[in-house]
Automatic annotation (TrEMBL):
Organism annotation: Methyloglobulus morosus KoM1
Descriptive protein name: Uncharacterized protein
Amino acid sequence: MAEIEIKPMLNYIIDRVQARINERTLWDGITIRS
C-alpha cells in the first residue's frame, strides 16, 4: 500500500524539481552543470 502513495508523490516531487531546474537553466545552466 505504501508504494501506491509513494510513487505518485515521488513523480510529483521530481516533476516540480525538474520544472525549477528547467527554469533556472535558462539563465543559470552553467552553474547547475558545474
